[in-house]
């Protein structure tokens, strides 16, 4: 184990020397510096980064030990043990505010000093562990919140998709219903007409109902990791989006040359959510670029699925103009968005990255290509 590094702050040079001698008489302890003023103590602490500072409360000069201790603790996170005399009772109240790890009465008893230092070091380590654990927990909570927000934003998009998918069957249903009035007037209603009417109406209603149950199945969270087939999963997401894809006249296709099935292990619905986020982003980029260029030929998204050594690699290639170079390293940050107020939260890519990399052991990154962006999603292949 490394030596415990101690800095002494004491304006009586003889006392300081005496303490140094005692401390270094013990194995495993070393004194990094003896400072005589608060200012010197801060300089030395910054330079030597001792594990602990033994600080005389009453110091000559403009800064007392309490002020120096506070600064050393705040700036460098180094804990302090105060050296006090009996007469310092009042001052100790003030010293308490700096949360010292202990007090030593002057003149110091050697054994007591070493024990106090050891106890203080132990307490300091424990405090640090606790702080680290709390930080980790806070991060976890923040991540959870973001994932929740992303789900909400995905739900909004979902509703948009459902209403797109419903538009056509709703129109058809409207026509079927209106026809019955004409049919009545022209005396066309008979058993055959009624059977047809019910059959046609039910076809549309079933299509609408399938959209909703499809949505529920597609996005309910998975409880456990399982092997799933990637090409089918991607096609499922595109089927789900077909209403939107058609109404935007986007040319969306999946290519997987020479391969019929590729398996990876993970959460299927989270994978779907990632593909969905990337598709939404590409569609948004395409809409924006069309607005800017009034260029009708823009609008293709290709999902290329392939095997690369032992990895499954998906490329989502669009022609939406790509990400401006100066923003490229920010798009995966939470809440980073270039969309108009109210249109994007900026969590899609962040959450996708967490899902792919932290939950499923994969990789998600992007590069700009001619006319657009390509997002890469990679997972280790599962042999089945
Ligand atoms: N395919 C893409 N082409 C061009 N820019 C993109 C593309 N995908 C993402 N971006 C940029 O990255 C930003 C962040 O994307 P992200 O999905 O995290 O958030 P968002 O789409 O803005 O909002 P949200 O997904 O929360 O609704 C976008 O605002 C956009 O500027
Ligand atoms: Mg997005």
Descriptive account of the structure:
The protein has 384 residues and is of the alpha/beta class. Among the domains are: 4-108, 3-Layer(aba) Sandwich (Rossmann fold); 221-380, Histidine kinase-like ATPase, C-terminal domain (Heat Shock Protein 90). The chain has helices at 13-24, 38-48, 65-76, 89-96, 110-185, 191-219, 230-240, 242-247, 268-293, 348-359; strands at residues 4-9, 29-35, 52-56, 80-84, 102-105, 226-229, 251-255, 263-266, 300-308, 311-318, 363-369, 372-380. The chain has a five-stranded parallel sheet with strand order 2-1-3-4-5, sandwiched between helices. It has a five-stranded mixed sheet with strand order 7-9-10-12-11. Strands 6-8 form a two-stranded antiparallel sheet. Strand 11 (363-369) and strand 12 form a beta hairpin. It is elongated, with a radius of gyration of 34 Å. It starts with a strand and ends with a strand. Bound molecules: adenosine-5'-triphosphate and magnesium ion. Magnesium ion (MG) binds next to helix 9.
């Amino acid at each position: 184990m490394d030596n415990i590094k101690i800095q002494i702050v004491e304006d009586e040079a003889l006392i300081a020397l005496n303490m140094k001698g005692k401390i270094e008489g013990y194995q495993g302890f070393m004194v990094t510096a003896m400072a005589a003023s608060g200012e010197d103590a801060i300089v030395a602490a910054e330079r030597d980064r001792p594990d602990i500072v033994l600080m005389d409360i009453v110091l000559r000069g403009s800064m007392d030990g309490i002020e120096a201790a506070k600064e050393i603790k705040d700036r460098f996170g180094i804990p302090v043990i105060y050296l006090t005399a009996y007469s310092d009772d009042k001052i100790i109240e003030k010293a308490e505010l700096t949360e010292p790890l202990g007090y030593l009465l002057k003149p110091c008893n050697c054994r007591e000093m070493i024990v106090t230092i050891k106890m203080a070091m132990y307490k300091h380590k424990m405090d640090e562990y606790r702080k680290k654990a709390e930080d980790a927990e806070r991060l976890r909570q923040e991540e959870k919140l973001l994932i929740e927000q992303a789900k909400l934003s995905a739900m909004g998009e979902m509703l948009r998709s459902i209403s797109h998918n419903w538009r056509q069957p709703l129109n058809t249903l409207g026509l079927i219903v209106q026809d019955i009035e004409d049919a009545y007037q022209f005396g066309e209603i008979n058993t055959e007409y009624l059977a047809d009417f019910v059959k046609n109406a039910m076809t549309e209603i079933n299509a609408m109902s399938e959209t909703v149950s499809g949505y529920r199945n597609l996005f309910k969270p998975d409880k456990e990791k399982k092997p799933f087939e990637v090409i089918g999963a991607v096609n499922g997401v595109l089927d789900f989006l077909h209403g939107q894809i058609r109404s935007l006249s986007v040319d969306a296709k999946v290519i997987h040359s020479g391969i019929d099935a590729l398996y990876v292990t993970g959460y299927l619905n989270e994978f779907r959510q990632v593909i969905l986020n990337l598709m939404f982003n590409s569609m948004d980029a395409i809409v924006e670029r069309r607005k800017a260029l009034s260029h009708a030929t823009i609008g293709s998204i290709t999902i290329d699925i392939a095997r690369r050594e032992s990895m499954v690699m998906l490329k989502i290639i669009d022609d939406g103009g790509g990400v401006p170079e100066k923003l490229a390293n920010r798009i995966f940050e939470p809440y980073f968005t270039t969309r108009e107020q109210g249109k994007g939260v900026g969590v899609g890519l962040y959450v996708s990255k967490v899902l792919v990399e932290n939950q499923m052991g994969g990789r998600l990154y992007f590069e700009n290509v001619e006319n657009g962006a390509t997002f890469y999603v990679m997972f280790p292949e599962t042999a089945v």
